[in-house]
């Protein structure tokens, strides 16, 4: 494994070194997928023994899932109902509603006598803090970061700057310690909605400033875990040294460096048949699918969540995958709740959490530089005016708004430019591969599959206890380039319901034509997966319900399905099989 040189050039042949600079249209349009070198073949990665994979022949085919779906309104526009979520009232903070009862955890911060409103600087500061990849830090930087963490850990628990309190910030906003202002029966939940990216940006901002102040170094910048680059696709060494203040023992012992991270990880799904190189190709393909493919704010950030709304309307692409998978991959499965990273209440106790999120934050910046008119922040005032409160490095309580976080330079920091090898790692259709690499495998045509569907109907809603396939009609076929630019074709898995305490997972395939081999993330047929990070009560069986969205315009082009009236959607349960209820499946055009 050590001999594997993790350079991006070995994966994507047309890879250049543009750094994070604006990629050209040519790069985005590039149809070059991750290639593996001639000493390895595609077939090697297809395994029949993987625990999370089902025999394709077990797939049930059925029709349905098309009823009762009023179109969700599109809100990525200036129209707004003037109902932004407001910063919580700390004096009303209570024990978190959504933590396992076996765990006693308090996450309320101290109450402050006054709140300061954050005012952004008038200009971008001339000197920015530069966040660097965690695997490239020099000794001086690592020492500095270690000392800052040591001091943060040494602060008394009731000091709002202490590491304990930093972890509680996440618990409070994510596990139901705050009620919405004006809606005392509804919790604030910053995940699974359009607040995911800005909330964590603000949390990291204060965390970084506090660390800097503890070492009297205002230039201190939080390193990011560069998990989107082959060289960064493992737990960074600085976090894995047991003598370091950056260490956390509550991590998966089997995922210590140099184990390559699986950006599509599902609990317990370690697959020894996938070698490092294949894993890296899968990861780069996932990055392409989750960052290049979603071209609108709604698809990238998540669905609107306004005052009075129930939590968890729906995640954006980056939160769903790989963010959630990284949490599950990092937590220790031997702990009762996969702590620390594997449960929201405990995530902030792992210093790795902040670097994991720094990369999420960095990719928000990168996404906006990719080609496409709609790759912008929301202009909806309910998003822009949403507020949170955090303690700063002077122990002052500060109220911040989402609108002041959209430009990181105004927050005083930026990211070191790094190569983005995944820009060239567009998944490829299996159809082409199978027919060219294994002529003895019979590939039925789409029509053949549709014929099969005339077998008994699968009625929605259903419990996902087996892989299921269903034919879903498209609103319009053969759309022009302009129509495609105007509206994305979106596959919506409606009303996905499960107990909040579980980490459920299922994969979604499109036009998976009864293949004999497993669909992988570098296949266009792999639309993505859904993996939840638990946040709920262990004994209450409280359920959460959400929609899961997949952008499929480009995917259908790659599958040569432009002329088809319908697509075949397959859902494959991977964890907590039989514990997810699905209300239906629909395809909509959304602008
Ligand atoms: Cu607030 Cu990565 O979770």
Short account of what is shown:
The chain has 591 residues and is of the alpha+beta class. The chain has helices at residues 25-29, 139-154, 163-174, 196-214, 237-240, 276-292, 297-301, 317-330, 344-347, 351-369, 381-384, 430-437, 446-452, 481-486, 553-558, and strands at residues 60-63, 115-117, 129-131, 179-180, 183-187, 387-391, 397-401, 413-415, 462-463, 468-473, 488-499, 505-510, 526-531, 543-551, 566-575, 581-582, 584-590.
Give the overall form. globular
Overall strand count: 17
Number of domains: 2
Q: Name the average pLDDT.
A: 84
Strand arrangement, largest sheet?
A: 1-10-15-12-13
Cross-link (2'-(S-cysteinyl)-histidine (Cys-His)): 174-191
Domain Tyrosinase copper-binding: 191-208, 350-361
GO molecular function: catechol oxidase activity; metal ion binding
Family: Belongs to the tyrosinase family.
What does the secondary structure layout of this molecule look like, with pairings?
Elements: H1 25-29, E1 60-63, E2 115-117, E3 129-131, H2 139-154, H3 163-174, E4 179-180, E5 183-187, H4 196-214, H5 237-240, H6 276-292, H7 297-301, H8 317-330, H9 344-347, H10 351-369, H11 381-384, E6 387-391, E7 397-401, E8 413-415, H12 430-437, H13 446-452, E9 462-463, E10 468-473, H14 481-486, E11 488-499, E12 505-510, E13 526-531, E14 543-551, H15 553-558, E15 566-575, E16 581-582, E17 584-590
Parallel strand pairs: 1-10, 2-7, 3-8
Antiparallel strand pairs: 4-5, 6-7, 9-16, 10-15, 11-14, 11-17, 12-13, 12-15
Helix pairs in contact: 2-4, 4-10, 6-8, 8-10
Bound molecules: CU-O-CU linkage.
Keywords: Copper, Disulfide bond, Metal-binding, Oxidoreductase, Thioether bond, Thylakoid
Protein name: Polyphenol oxidase
Organism: Morus notabilis
């Amino acid at each position: 494994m050590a001999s594997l040189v993790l350079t991006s050039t070995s994966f994507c042949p047309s890879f250049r070194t543009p750094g994070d600079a604006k990629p050209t249209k040519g790069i985005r349009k590039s149809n070059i997928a991750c290639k593996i070198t001639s000493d390895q073949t595609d077939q090697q990665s297809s395994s029949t023994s993987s625990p999370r994979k089902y025999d394709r022949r077990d797939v049930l085919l059925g029709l349905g899932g098309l009823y009762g779906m009023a179109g969700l309104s599109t809100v990525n526009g200036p129209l707004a109902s003037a109902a932004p979520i407001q910063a919580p009232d700390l004096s009303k903070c209570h024990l978190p509603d959504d933590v396992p009862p076996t765990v006693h955890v308090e996450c309320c911060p101290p109450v402050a006598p006054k709140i300061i409103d954050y005012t952004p600087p008038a200009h971008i500061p001339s000197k920015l803090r530069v966040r660097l990849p965690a695997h490239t830090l020099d000794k001086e930087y690592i020492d500095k970061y270690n000392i800052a963490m040591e001091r943060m850990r040494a602060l008394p628990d009731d000091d709002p700057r202490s590491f304990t309190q930093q972890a509680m910030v996440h618990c409070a906003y994510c596990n139901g310690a705050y009620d919405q202002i004006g809606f005392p029966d509804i919790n604030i939940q910053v995940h699974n909605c359009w607040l995911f990216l800005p909330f964590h940006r603000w949390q990291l901002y204060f965390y970084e400033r506090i660390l800097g102040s503890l070492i009297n170094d205002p230039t201190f910048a939080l390193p990011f875990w560069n998990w989107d680059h082959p060289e960064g696709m493992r737990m960074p060494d600085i976090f894995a040294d047991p003598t370091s203040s950056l260490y956390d023992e509550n991590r998966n012992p089997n995922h210590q460096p140099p184990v390559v991270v699986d950006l599509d990880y599902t609990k317990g799904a370690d697959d020894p048949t996938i070698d490092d190189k294949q894993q890296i190709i899968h990861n780069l393909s996932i990055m392409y699918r989750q960052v290049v493919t979603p071209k609108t704010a709604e698809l990238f950030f998540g669905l609107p969540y306004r005052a009075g709304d129930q939590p968890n309307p729906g995640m954006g692409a980056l939160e769903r995958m790989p963010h959630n998978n990284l949490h599950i991959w990092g937590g220790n499965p031997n702990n009762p709740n996969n702590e620390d990273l594997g449960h929201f209440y405990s995530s902030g106790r792992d210093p790795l959490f902040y670097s994991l999120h720094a990369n999420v934050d960095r990719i928000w910046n990168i996404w906006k530089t990719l080609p496409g008119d709609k790759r912008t922040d929301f202009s909806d005032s309910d998003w822009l005016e949403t507020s949170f409160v955090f303690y700063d490095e002077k122990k002052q309580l500060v109220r911040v708004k989402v609108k002041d976080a959209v430009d990181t330079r105004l927050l005083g920091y930026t990211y070191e430019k790094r190569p983005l090898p995944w820009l060239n790692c567009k998944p490829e259709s299996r159809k082409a591969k199978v027919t060219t690499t294994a002529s003895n495998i019979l590939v039925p045509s789409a029509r053949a599959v549709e014929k099969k569907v005339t077998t008994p109907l699968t009625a929605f809603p259903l419990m996902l206890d087996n892989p299921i396939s269903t034919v879903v009609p498209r609103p319009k076929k053969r759309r022009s380039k302009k129509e495609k630019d105007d509206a994305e074709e979106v596959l919506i898995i409606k009303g996905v319901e499960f107990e909040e305490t579980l980490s459920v997972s299922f994969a979604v395939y499109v036009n998976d034509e009864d293949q004999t081999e497993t669909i992988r993330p570098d296949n266009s047929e792999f639309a993505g997966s859904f993996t939840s990070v638990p946040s709920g009560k262990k004994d209450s069986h409280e359920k959460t319900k959400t929609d899961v969205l997949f952008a499929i315009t480009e995917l259908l082009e790659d599958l040569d399905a432009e002329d088809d009236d319908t697509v075949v959607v397959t859902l494959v349960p991977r964890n907590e099989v039989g514990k997810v209820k699905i209300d239906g499946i629909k395809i909509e055009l959304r602008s």
